What we know:
Blueprint: E1 4-14, E2 25-34, H1 37-44, E3 49-51, E4 54-58, E5 68-72, H2 81-96, H3 113-119, H4 121-172, H5 201-216, H6 221-229, H7 247-251, E6 263-271, H8 275-279, H9 281-294, H10 305-313, E7 331-339, E8 342-351, E9 355-363, H11 372-390, E10 396-402, E11 418-421, E12 428-430, H12 431-440, E13 465-468, E14 471-474, H13 475-478, H14 485-505, E15 507-510
Parallel strand pairs: 1-15, 9-10, 13-15
Antiparallel strand pairs: 1-2, 2-4, 3-4, 5-10, 5-11, 6-7, 7-8, 8-9, 11-12, 13-14
Helix pairs in contact: 5-6
Amino acid sequence: xxxxxxxxxxxxxxxxxxxxxxxxxxxxxxxxxxxxxxxxxxxxxxxxxxxxxxxxxxxxxxxxxxxxxxxxxxxxxxxxxxxxxxxxxxxxxxxxxxxxxxxxxxxxxxxxxxxxxxxxxxxxxxxxxxxxxxxxxxxxxxxxxxxxxxxxxxxxxxxxxxxxxxxxxxxxxxxxxxxxxxxxxxxxxxxxxxxxxxxxxxxxxxxxxxxxxxxxxxxxxxxxxxxxxxxxxxxxxxxxxxxxxxxxxxxxxxxxxxxxxxxxxxxxxxxxxxxxxxxxxxxxxxxxxxxxxxxxxxxxxxxxxxxxxxxxxxxxxxxxxxxxxxxxxxxxxxxxxxxxxxxxxxxxxxxxxxxxxxxxxxxxxxxxxxxxxxxxxxxxxxxxxxxxxxxxxxxxxxxxxxxxxxxxxxxxxxxxxxxxxxxxxxxxxxxxxxxxxxxxxxxxxxxxxxxxxxxxxxxxxxxxxxxxxxxxxxxxxxxxxxxxxxxxxxxxxxxxxxxxxxxxxxxxxxx
Length: 511
Protein backbone atom coordinates (compact mmCIF):
# COMPACT_ATOMS: atom_id res chain seq x y z
CA UNK A 1 0.00 0.00 0.00
CA UNK A 2 1.30 3.46 -0.90
CA UNK A 3 1.78 6.22 1.65
CA UNK A 4 -0.90 8.91 1.67
CA UNK A 5 0.04 12.38 2.97
CA UNK A 6 -1.61 15.78 3.13
CA UNK A 7 0.92 18.62 3.04
CA UNK A 8 0.12 21.49 5.41
CA UNK A 9 2.95 23.81 4.44
CA UNK A 10 5.05 26.20 6.50
CA UNK A 11 4.16 27.10 10.06
CA UNK A 12 6.26 29.91 11.53
CA UNK A 13 6.22 32.30 14.46
CA UNK A 14 4.94 29.96 17.16
CA UNK A 15 6.19 29.13 20.65
CA UNK A 16 9.37 27.06 21.12
CA UNK A 17 9.44 24.63 24.02
CA UNK A 18 13.23 24.55 24.11
CA UNK A 19 14.13 28.22 24.55
CA UNK A 20 10.65 29.53 25.51
CA UNK A 21 10.67 31.93 22.59
CA UNK A 22 7.08 32.93 21.87
CA UNK A 23 7.50 33.34 18.12
CA UNK A 24 10.80 31.73 17.19
CA UNK A 25 9.82 28.30 15.93
CA UNK A 26 9.40 27.44 12.24
CA UNK A 27 8.65 24.11 10.57
CA UNK A 28 6.91 22.49 7.64
CA UNK A 29 4.50 19.64 8.23
CA UNK A 30 2.11 17.14 6.74
CA UNK A 31 -0.59 14.85 8.01
CA UNK A 32 0.19 11.22 7.24
CA UNK A 33 -2.97 9.18 6.71
CA UNK A 34 -0.77 6.13 6.13
CA UNK A 35 2.92 5.59 5.53
CA UNK A 36 5.20 2.70 4.67
CA UNK A 37 8.20 2.11 6.90
CA UNK A 38 10.55 2.62 3.94
CA UNK A 39 9.06 6.03 3.17
CA UNK A 40 9.39 7.09 6.79
CA UNK A 41 12.97 5.80 6.89
CA UNK A 42 13.78 7.95 3.87
CA UNK A 43 12.02 10.95 5.38
CA UNK A 44 13.88 10.86 8.70
CA UNK A 45 17.08 10.60 6.66
CA UNK A 46 16.06 14.00 5.28
CA UNK A 47 15.38 15.58 8.69
CA UNK A 48 11.68 14.74 9.17
CA UNK A 49 10.18 13.45 12.41
CA UNK A 50 6.74 12.25 13.47
CA UNK A 51 4.56 13.15 16.44
CA UNK A 52 1.62 10.79 16.28
CA UNK A 53 0.46 10.99 12.66
CA UNK A 54 1.80 14.49 12.13
CA UNK A 55 5.17 14.48 10.35
CA UNK A 56 7.20 17.68 10.49
CA UNK A 57 10.56 19.10 9.43
CA UNK A 58 12.11 22.15 11.13
CA UNK A 59 13.12 25.02 8.86
CA UNK A 60 16.69 24.86 10.05
CA UNK A 61 17.96 28.25 8.90
CA UNK A 62 14.91 30.06 10.32
CA UNK A 63 13.88 28.32 13.54
CA UNK A 64 15.22 29.64 16.85
CA UNK A 65 16.58 26.25 17.96
CA UNK A 66 17.85 24.22 14.97
CA UNK A 67 17.07 20.53 15.46
CA UNK A 68 19.61 18.16 13.90
CA UNK A 69 18.70 14.53 13.38
CA UNK A 70 21.09 12.38 15.41
CA UNK A 71 21.82 8.69 15.13
CA UNK A 72 24.03 6.39 17.19
CA UNK A 73 26.06 3.52 15.75
CA UNK A 74 25.19 0.68 18.16
CA UNK A 75 27.58 -1.86 16.65
CA UNK A 76 30.56 0.27 17.72
CA UNK A 77 28.95 1.65 20.88
CA UNK A 78 30.78 1.25 24.20
CA UNK A 79 29.10 2.49 27.38
CA UNK A 80 30.84 5.40 29.07
CA UNK A 81 31.68 5.57 32.75
CA UNK A 82 28.43 7.39 33.53
CA UNK A 83 26.44 4.83 31.51
CA UNK A 84 28.03 1.99 33.48
CA UNK A 85 27.10 3.70 36.74
CA UNK A 86 23.45 3.76 35.68
CA UNK A 87 23.50 0.07 34.73
CA UNK A 88 25.23 -0.90 37.99
CA UNK A 89 22.71 1.18 39.93
CA UNK A 90 19.88 -0.78 38.33
CA UNK A 91 21.57 -4.12 39.07
CA UNK A 92 22.11 -3.19 42.73
CA UNK A 93 18.49 -2.17 43.04
CA UNK A 94 17.26 -5.40 41.46
CA UNK A 95 19.63 -7.61 43.45
CA UNK A 96 19.50 -6.03 46.89
CA UNK A 97 16.90 -3.28 46.71
CA UNK A 98 19.62 -0.66 47.19
CA UNK A 99 18.66 2.89 46.31
CA UNK A 100 21.66 4.97 45.36
CA UNK A 101 21.96 8.34 47.01
CA UNK A 102 22.96 11.50 45.23
CA UNK A 103 21.98 12.87 41.86
CA UNK A 104 18.78 11.26 40.57
CA UNK A 105 18.46 13.35 37.43
CA UNK A 106 17.07 11.36 34.55
CA UNK A 107 19.32 12.93 31.96
CA UNK A 108 23.05 12.27 32.30
CA UNK A 109 25.47 14.97 33.24
CA UNK A 110 27.95 16.41 30.78
CA UNK A 111 30.65 13.84 29.94
CA UNK A 112 33.68 13.75 32.20
CA UNK A 113 37.29 13.34 31.16
CA UNK A 114 37.07 9.68 32.21
CA UNK A 115 34.10 9.19 29.88
CA UNK A 116 35.98 10.64 26.95
CA UNK A 117 38.94 8.40 27.65
CA UNK A 118 36.89 5.24 28.09
CA UNK A 119 35.15 5.81 24.75
CA UNK A 120 38.54 5.70 23.03
CA UNK A 121 39.74 2.55 24.80
CA UNK A 122 40.54 0.87 21.50
CA UNK A 123 43.01 3.56 20.50
CA UNK A 124 44.59 3.57 23.97
CA UNK A 125 45.08 -0.20 23.84
CA UNK A 126 46.81 0.10 20.47
CA UNK A 127 49.14 2.78 21.79
CA UNK A 128 49.93 0.63 24.82
CA UNK A 129 50.73 -2.33 22.58
CA UNK A 130 53.18 -0.36 20.46
CA UNK A 131 54.83 1.10 23.55
CA UNK A 132 55.14 -2.34 25.13
CA UNK A 133 56.63 -3.79 21.96
CA UNK A 134 59.26 -1.06 21.73
CA UNK A 135 60.12 -1.43 25.42
CA UNK A 136 60.31 -5.19 25.11
CA UNK A 137 62.60 -5.02 22.09
CA UNK A 138 64.91 -2.63 23.92
CA UNK A 139 64.87 -4.83 27.02
CA UNK A 140 65.63 -7.92 24.94
CA UNK A 141 68.60 -6.30 23.24
CA UNK A 142 69.98 -5.03 26.56
CA UNK A 143 69.50 -8.47 28.10
CA UNK A 144 71.34 -10.20 25.25
CA UNK A 145 74.19 -7.69 25.37
CA UNK A 146 74.46 -8.10 29.14
CA UNK A 147 74.55 -11.89 28.83
CA UNK A 148 77.27 -11.69 26.21
CA UNK A 149 79.38 -9.40 28.38
CA UNK A 150 78.97 -11.67 31.40
CA UNK A 151 79.85 -14.71 29.32
CA UNK A 152 82.97 -13.00 27.99
CA UNK A 153 84.04 -12.00 31.49
CA UNK A 154 83.50 -15.55 32.79
CA UNK A 155 85.56 -17.04 29.96
CA UNK A 156 88.28 -14.46 30.45
CA UNK A 157 88.29 -15.13 34.19
CA UNK A 158 88.45 -18.89 33.59
CA UNK A 159 91.35 -18.48 31.19
CA UNK A 160 93.29 -16.39 33.69
CA UNK A 161 92.60 -18.82 36.53
CA UNK A 162 93.52 -21.79 34.37
CA UNK A 163 96.73 -20.06 33.29
CA UNK A 164 97.66 -19.31 36.90
CA UNK A 165 97.03 -22.94 37.87
CA UNK A 166 99.31 -24.14 35.12
CA UNK A 167 102.05 -21.78 36.15
CA UNK A 168 101.81 -22.99 39.74
CA UNK A 169 101.92 -26.60 38.62
CA UNK A 170 104.88 -26.01 36.36
CA UNK A 171 106.71 -24.09 39.05
CA UNK A 172 106.22 -26.87 41.60
CA UNK A 173 107.51 -29.55 39.25
CA UNK A 174 104.23 -31.46 39.19
CA UNK A 175 103.68 -33.54 36.10
CA UNK A 176 101.14 -32.35 33.67
CA UNK A 177 99.61 -33.32 30.41
CA UNK A 178 100.11 -31.25 27.34
CA UNK A 179 99.32 -27.77 28.51
CA UNK A 180 98.37 -24.90 26.25
CA UNK A 181 99.17 -21.54 27.70
CA UNK A 182 97.11 -18.71 26.23
CA UNK A 183 99.06 -15.72 25.20
CA UNK A 184 97.81 -12.36 24.03
CA UNK A 185 96.55 -12.71 20.48
CA UNK A 186 98.46 -11.03 17.78
CA UNK A 187 96.63 -8.64 15.50
CA UNK A 188 94.84 -10.47 12.73
CA UNK A 189 95.21 -13.88 14.33
CA UNK A 190 92.44 -15.69 16.23
CA UNK A 191 89.68 -14.30 18.42
CA UNK A 192 90.04 -11.11 20.38
CA UNK A 193 89.18 -12.06 23.97
CA UNK A 194 88.57 -8.43 24.86
CA UNK A 195 85.40 -8.62 22.71
CA UNK A 196 82.31 -10.84 23.11
CA UNK A 197 82.77 -14.26 21.58
CA UNK A 198 81.29 -14.98 18.19
CA UNK A 199 77.73 -16.31 18.34
CA UNK A 200 76.58 -19.35 16.49
CA UNK A 201 74.43 -18.80 13.43
CA UNK A 202 71.73 -20.98 15.00
CA UNK A 203 71.42 -18.63 17.98
CA UNK A 204 71.20 -15.61 15.70
CA UNK A 205 68.43 -17.27 13.66
CA UNK A 206 66.49 -18.07 16.83
CA UNK A 207 66.69 -14.48 18.02
CA UNK A 208 65.60 -13.13 14.63
CA UNK A 209 62.66 -15.52 14.58
CA UNK A 210 61.66 -14.50 18.10
CA UNK A 211 61.73 -10.80 17.20
CA UNK A 212 59.76 -11.44 14.01
CA UNK A 213 57.04 -13.34 15.89
CA UNK A 214 56.81 -10.54 18.43
CA UNK A 215 56.33 -7.94 15.70
CA UNK A 216 53.68 -10.04 13.94
CA UNK A 217 51.74 -10.63 17.17
CA UNK A 218 52.25 -7.50 19.30
CA UNK A 219 49.30 -8.32 21.58
CA UNK A 220 51.00 -11.45 22.77
CA UNK A 221 54.63 -10.42 22.70
CA UNK A 222 55.10 -10.76 26.45
CA UNK A 223 53.68 -14.26 26.52
CA UNK A 224 55.73 -15.27 23.46
CA UNK A 225 58.93 -13.95 24.98
CA UNK A 226 58.32 -15.71 28.29
CA UNK A 227 57.33 -18.92 26.55
CA UNK A 228 60.65 -19.10 24.76
CA UNK A 229 62.72 -18.12 27.78
CA UNK A 230 61.08 -20.32 30.41
CA UNK A 231 60.26 -24.02 30.62
CA UNK A 232 56.58 -24.68 29.97
CA UNK A 233 56.16 -26.17 33.45
CA UNK A 234 57.19 -22.85 35.03
CA UNK A 235 54.84 -20.67 32.97
CA UNK A 236 51.80 -19.29 34.79
CA UNK A 237 48.43 -20.35 33.34
CA UNK A 238 47.15 -18.01 30.61
CA UNK A 239 44.52 -15.59 31.83
CA UNK A 240 41.73 -14.06 29.79
CA UNK A 241 42.66 -10.69 28.34
CA UNK A 242 41.32 -7.75 30.29
CA UNK A 243 38.66 -6.73 27.79
CA UNK A 244 35.95 -4.25 28.81
CA UNK A 245 32.50 -5.72 29.44
CA UNK A 246 30.05 -5.38 26.59
CA UNK A 247 26.78 -3.51 26.94
CA UNK A 248 24.93 -6.83 27.06
CA UNK A 249 27.22 -8.14 29.81
CA UNK A 250 26.39 -5.10 31.93
CA UNK A 251 22.64 -5.19 31.27
CA UNK A 252 22.05 -8.92 31.59
CA UNK A 253 24.42 -9.68 34.46
CA UNK A 254 23.03 -12.61 36.42
CA UNK A 255 21.13 -11.84 39.61
CA UNK A 256 21.00 -13.95 42.79
CA UNK A 257 18.09 -16.35 43.22
CA UNK A 258 16.80 -14.28 46.13
CA UNK A 259 16.93 -10.99 44.20
CA UNK A 260 14.80 -8.22 45.70
CA UNK A 261 13.14 -7.22 42.43
CA UNK A 262 12.39 -8.58 38.98
CA UNK A 263 12.55 -6.45 35.83
CA UNK A 264 11.04 -7.56 32.53
CA UNK A 265 10.99 -5.68 29.22
CA UNK A 266 8.13 -6.42 26.82
CA UNK A 267 7.76 -5.14 23.26
CA UNK A 268 4.11 -4.74 22.24
CA UNK A 269 2.76 -3.42 18.97
CA UNK A 270 0.92 -0.14 19.48
CA UNK A 271 -0.42 0.47 15.97
CA UNK A 272 -2.52 -1.36 15.08
CA UNK A 273 -2.92 -2.18 18.79
CA UNK A 274 -2.12 -5.75 19.76
CA UNK A 275 -4.08 -7.64 22.40
CA UNK A 276 -1.23 -7.12 24.90
CA UNK A 277 -1.27 -3.39 24.20
CA UNK A 278 -5.03 -3.18 24.72
CA UNK A 279 -4.81 -5.16 27.97
CA UNK A 280 -2.22 -2.77 29.43
CA UNK A 281 -3.51 0.49 27.93
CA UNK A 282 -5.01 1.97 31.10
CA UNK A 283 -2.01 1.13 33.27
CA UNK A 284 0.34 2.59 30.68
CA UNK A 285 -1.75 5.74 30.40
CA UNK A 286 -1.70 6.29 34.18
CA UNK A 287 2.11 6.17 34.14
CA UNK A 288 2.10 8.72 31.31
CA UNK A 289 -0.30 11.01 33.17
CA UNK A 290 1.79 11.00 36.34
CA UNK A 291 4.95 11.60 34.31
CA UNK A 292 3.48 14.63 32.52
CA UNK A 293 2.12 16.11 35.74
CA UNK A 294 5.24 15.62 37.88
CA UNK A 295 8.11 15.94 35.39
CA UNK A 296 6.59 18.43 32.92
CA UNK A 297 4.20 20.02 35.44
CA UNK A 298 1.14 19.67 33.23
CA UNK A 299 -2.20 20.46 34.90
CA UNK A 300 -4.29 17.32 35.62
CA UNK A 301 -6.74 18.03 32.80
CA UNK A 302 -4.07 18.27 30.08
CA UNK A 303 -2.73 14.68 29.77
CA UNK A 304 -6.06 13.17 28.70
CA UNK A 305 -6.63 9.74 27.21
CA UNK A 306 -7.28 11.27 23.79
CA UNK A 307 -4.07 13.31 23.95
CA UNK A 308 -2.10 10.22 25.01
CA UNK A 309 -3.62 8.20 22.18
CA UNK A 310 -3.06 10.88 19.56
CA UNK A 311 0.48 11.67 20.69
CA UNK A 312 1.98 8.26 21.55
CA UNK A 313 -0.33 5.48 20.37
CA UNK A 314 -1.56 6.53 16.93
CA UNK A 315 0.94 6.02 14.14
CA UNK A 316 0.74 6.28 10.36
CA UNK A 317 3.23 3.43 9.90
CA UNK A 318 1.88 0.36 8.16
CA UNK A 319 2.66 -3.03 9.68
CA UNK A 320 5.16 -4.95 7.60
CA UNK A 321 6.61 -8.42 8.05
CA UNK A 322 9.52 -9.77 6.06
CA UNK A 323 11.20 -13.21 6.15
CA UNK A 324 14.54 -11.49 6.69
CA UNK A 325 13.13 -8.78 8.95
CA UNK A 326 12.75 -8.68 12.73
CA UNK A 327 10.57 -11.38 14.29
CA UNK A 328 8.24 -8.68 15.66
CA UNK A 329 7.98 -7.04 12.23
CA UNK A 330 8.35 -3.37 11.30
CA UNK A 331 6.17 -0.54 12.58
CA UNK A 332 5.36 1.23 15.86
CA UNK A 333 5.78 -0.35 19.29
CA UNK A 334 5.78 0.33 23.02
CA UNK A 335 8.68 -1.13 24.96
CA UNK A 336 7.24 -1.66 28.43
CA UNK A 337 9.40 -1.95 31.55
CA UNK A 338 7.70 -4.18 34.12
CA UNK A 339 9.03 -4.12 37.69
CA UNK A 340 7.56 -6.73 40.02
CA UNK A 341 4.44 -7.03 37.87
CA UNK A 342 3.72 -3.34 37.21
CA UNK A 343 4.69 -0.90 34.46
CA UNK A 344 7.23 1.69 35.59
CA UNK A 345 8.34 3.03 32.19
CA UNK A 346 7.45 2.90 28.50
CA UNK A 347 9.69 3.64 25.54
CA UNK A 348 7.81 4.50 22.34
CA UNK A 349 9.80 3.29 19.33
CA UNK A 350 9.52 2.71 15.59
CA UNK A 351 11.27 -0.26 14.00
CA UNK A 352 12.30 0.72 10.47
CA UNK A 353 14.33 -0.98 7.72
CA UNK A 354 17.66 0.49 8.85
CA UNK A 355 17.10 1.59 12.42
CA UNK A 356 15.25 1.66 15.69
CA UNK A 357 13.88 5.18 16.05
CA UNK A 358 13.16 6.47 19.56
CA UNK A 359 9.97 8.54 19.73
CA UNK A 360 9.39 9.23 23.43
CA UNK A 361 9.89 7.89 26.95
CA UNK A 362 7.68 8.28 29.98
CA UNK A 363 8.12 6.71 33.41
CA UNK A 364 6.77 6.59 36.94
CA UNK A 365 8.38 9.55 38.77
CA UNK A 366 8.67 7.40 41.91
CA UNK A 367 11.49 5.55 40.13
CA UNK A 368 13.41 8.55 38.85
CA UNK A 369 16.33 7.50 41.08
CA UNK A 370 17.00 4.70 38.57
CA UNK A 371 17.83 7.21 35.78
CA UNK A 372 15.31 5.50 33.52
CA UNK A 373 15.93 7.89 30.62
CA UNK A 374 19.54 6.76 30.35
CA UNK A 375 18.74 3.14 31.18
CA UNK A 376 16.03 2.89 28.51
CA UNK A 377 18.33 4.43 25.87
CA UNK A 378 20.97 1.81 26.66
CA UNK A 379 18.35 -0.94 26.48
CA UNK A 380 17.17 0.38 23.11
CA UNK A 381 20.75 0.37 21.81
CA UNK A 382 21.09 -3.24 22.97
CA UNK A 383 17.72 -4.03 21.35
CA UNK A 384 18.98 -2.59 18.05
CA UNK A 385 22.03 -4.83 18.25
CA UNK A 386 19.77 -7.80 18.90
CA UNK A 387 17.62 -7.03 15.84
CA UNK A 388 20.77 -6.57 13.77
CA UNK A 389 21.73 -10.21 14.33
CA UNK A 390 18.83 -11.35 12.15
CA UNK A 391 18.46 -8.22 10.03
CA UNK A 392 21.99 -7.00 9.19
CA UNK A 393 20.88 -3.78 7.48
CA UNK A 394 19.13 -2.68 10.68
CA UNK A 395 22.15 -1.20 12.39
CA UNK A 396 21.37 2.33 13.66
CA UNK A 397 19.63 3.88 16.64
CA UNK A 398 17.97 7.23 15.94
CA UNK A 399 17.56 9.44 19.00
CA UNK A 400 15.38 12.16 17.52
CA UNK A 401 16.79 15.67 17.39
CA UNK A 402 20.03 17.01 18.81
CA UNK A 403 19.74 20.67 19.82
CA UNK A 404 23.15 22.08 20.62
CA UNK A 405 21.75 25.43 21.74
CA UNK A 406 19.55 23.71 24.36
CA UNK A 407 21.54 22.31 27.33
CA UNK A 408 18.76 19.83 28.17
CA UNK A 409 19.06 18.20 24.73
CA UNK A 410 22.85 18.03 24.43
CA UNK A 411 23.00 14.80 26.45
CA UNK A 412 22.14 12.85 23.29
CA UNK A 413 25.64 13.55 22.04
CA UNK A 414 27.06 11.31 24.78
CA UNK A 415 25.94 8.10 23.08
CA UNK A 416 28.89 7.61 20.78
CA UNK A 417 29.88 7.01 18.10
CA UNK A 418 27.09 9.13 16.66
CA UNK A 419 26.43 11.26 13.60
CA UNK A 420 24.49 14.41 12.80
CA UNK A 421 22.59 14.94 9.56
CA UNK A 422 23.78 17.79 7.37
CA UNK A 423 20.72 20.03 6.85
CA UNK A 424 21.69 20.91 3.28
CA UNK A 425 23.17 17.80 1.67
CA UNK A 426 21.59 15.15 3.96
CA UNK A 427 24.78 13.20 4.53
CA UNK A 428 25.82 11.92 7.95
CA UNK A 429 28.80 13.56 9.64
CA UNK A 430 30.47 12.34 12.88
CA UNK A 431 29.36 14.56 15.74
CA UNK A 432 32.96 15.34 16.74
CA UNK A 433 33.41 17.14 13.43
CA UNK A 434 30.19 19.12 13.90
CA UNK A 435 30.64 20.43 17.44
CA UNK A 436 33.30 23.11 16.70
CA UNK A 437 30.99 24.67 14.09
CA UNK A 438 27.98 24.51 16.41
CA UNK A 439 29.93 26.37 19.08
CA UNK A 440 30.19 29.29 16.66
CA UNK A 441 26.73 29.21 15.10
CA UNK A 442 23.35 27.62 15.83
CA UNK A 443 22.82 26.76 12.18
CA UNK A 444 25.58 24.93 10.33
CA UNK A 445 26.17 23.06 7.13
CA UNK A 446 28.22 20.05 8.25
CA UNK A 447 29.31 18.84 4.82
CA UNK A 448 32.66 20.55 4.25
CA UNK A 449 32.61 19.99 0.50
CA UNK A 450 31.38 23.31 -0.95
CA UNK A 451 30.52 21.58 -4.24
CA UNK A 452 28.33 18.90 -2.62
CA UNK A 453 24.59 19.08 -3.22
CA UNK A 454 21.51 17.18 -2.09
CA UNK A 455 21.77 14.03 -4.22
CA UNK A 456 18.20 13.00 -3.39
CA UNK A 457 16.65 16.34 -4.30
CA UNK A 458 13.58 16.62 -6.49
CA UNK A 459 14.86 16.73 -10.05
CA UNK A 460 11.68 15.87 -11.96
CA UNK A 461 8.71 17.35 -10.07
CA UNK A 462 6.30 16.40 -12.84
CA UNK A 463 6.71 12.76 -11.78
CA UNK A 464 5.45 13.50 -8.28
CA UNK A 465 2.32 11.44 -7.52
CA UNK A 466 -0.90 13.28 -6.68
CA UNK A 467 -4.17 11.85 -5.37
CA UNK A 468 -6.90 14.13 -6.69
CA UNK A 469 -10.63 13.45 -6.99
CA UNK A 470 -10.13 9.77 -6.14
CA UNK A 471 -7.61 9.38 -8.94
CA UNK A 472 -3.83 8.99 -8.95
CA UNK A 473 -1.97 11.13 -11.45
CA UNK A 474 1.50 12.61 -11.96
CA UNK A 475 1.94 16.25 -11.04
CA UNK A 476 2.57 17.04 -14.71
CA UNK A 477 -1.08 16.17 -15.43
CA UNK A 478 -2.47 17.66 -12.21
CA UNK A 479 -0.90 21.11 -12.71
CA UNK A 480 -2.66 21.52 -16.04
CA UNK A 481 -5.98 21.52 -14.17
CA UNK A 482 -4.89 24.19 -11.67
CA UNK A 483 -4.97 27.96 -12.01
CA UNK A 484 -3.85 28.99 -8.51
CA UNK A 485 -0.12 29.94 -8.43
CA UNK A 486 0.07 29.24 -4.69
CA UNK A 487 -0.88 25.62 -5.34
CA UNK A 488 2.14 25.12 -7.57
CA UNK A 489 4.41 26.76 -4.98
CA UNK A 490 3.11 24.46 -2.21
CA UNK A 491 3.54 21.29 -4.26
CA UNK A 492 7.05 22.21 -5.36
CA UNK A 493 8.00 23.06 -1.76
CA UNK A 494 6.72 19.63 -0.68
CA UNK A 495 8.71 17.96 -3.48
CA UNK A 496 11.89 19.75 -2.46
CA UNK A 497 11.53 18.71 1.19
CA UNK A 498 10.64 15.03 0.71
CA UNK A 499 13.04 14.40 -2.19
CA UNK A 500 12.59 12.69 -5.54
CA UNK A 501 12.25 9.08 -4.33
CA UNK A 502 9.50 9.77 -1.78
CA UNK A 503 7.65 12.17 -4.08
CA UNK A 504 7.33 9.37 -6.65
CA UNK A 505 6.20 6.74 -4.13
CA UNK A 506 3.96 8.70 -1.75
CA UNK A 507 0.56 10.01 -2.79
CA UNK A 508 0.08 13.72 -2.15
CA UNK A 509 -3.57 14.29 -1.32
CA UNK A 510 -5.06 17.44 -2.85
CA UNK A 511 -8.67 18.62 -2.77
